[in-house]
Amino acid sequence: EAQVTQNPRYLITVTGKKLTVTCSQNMNHEYMSWYRQDPGLGLRQIYYSMNVEVTDKGDVPEGYKVSRKEKRNFPLILESPSPNQTSLYFCASSFDGGETDTQYFGPGTRLTVL
Amino acid sequence: AQSVTQLDSHVSVSEGTPVLLRCNYSSSYSPSLFWYVQHPNKGLQLLLKYTSAATLVKGINGFEAEFKKSETSFHLTKPSAHMSDAAEYFCVVSDFRGTSYGKLTFGQGTILTVHP
Question: What DSSP assignment string belongs to B67-95?
Fold first, then answer.
């Protein structure tokens, strides 16, 4: 089954404790992206990747890092999480990131930073 | 720069009545436009997309949207609401020319409530 998976689905952590949220897709997509969803703000793009070793900032990259060493994986790293990073995070992928491409979303990761 | 405004944060309808979710966009070029739906505790699913072909776009579950360039609008409609339509809906614009390659912009979302 074609899908985007994220782990963990739920995470409660404390300020300053490094964490990684994994994202994997099995559709051989070139384009992958991370979003955060906050009430009243819709989804805002954090980082995206057009291909292996090619990443770029979205609208809200501060406090986040990403890497794309393999085509299928696109982990999101919070090196020193803070309470304002409490949010619902979505990973997405698409064929090549083209203008008309359909994005396929993972189920989401709900992160709480105390 | 591109932007999206969803004109209603909440819409409430009765089952069997029409649905109208409003979306206005801003883009320097001719963008592609999407509607996604998010059911509670689920990821986002594509409803439909406009990619500069026919201006009236039909999607899944009886939804459709009309691209009106003169009004910079892309409103989502459905003739008859069903209880299962209750969800949050997002209008999305993509305009990959200029410096915004790879970047999608989401609206703030509209929560649709359907009453029996």
Answer: EETTTTEEEEEESS--GGG-EEEEEEEE-
Q: What is the pLDDT of residues B37-71, one digit of tens each?
A: 999 888 899 999 988 778 899 999 999 999 998 99
Spell out which residues of chain B touch residue A41, defining contact as CB-CB under 8 Å: 108
How far is the alpha carbon of A84 from chain B, nearest alpha carbon, in Å?
19
- Between CA A95 and CA A110 the distance in angstroms is 26
Phi, psi of A17 (to 5 degrees): -90, 110
Distance CA B91, CA B50 (A): 11
Residues of chain A with pLDDT under 70: 99
Task: Give the side-chain half-sphere CA count within 13 A for B27.
Answer: 27
Average pLDDT over residues B108-116: 95
Number of cross-chain residue pairs from A and B with Cβ atoms under 8 Å apart: 63
- What is the predicted pLDDT for the residue at B101? 56
Assign A16 to helix, strand or coil. coil
Structure-token pair, residue B85: 């339509």
| φ, ψ dihedrals at B85, nearest 5° | -80, -10
* Cβ–Cβ gap B108/A100 under 8 Å: no
Grade residue B99 by pLDDT with cuts at 50, 70 and 90: very low
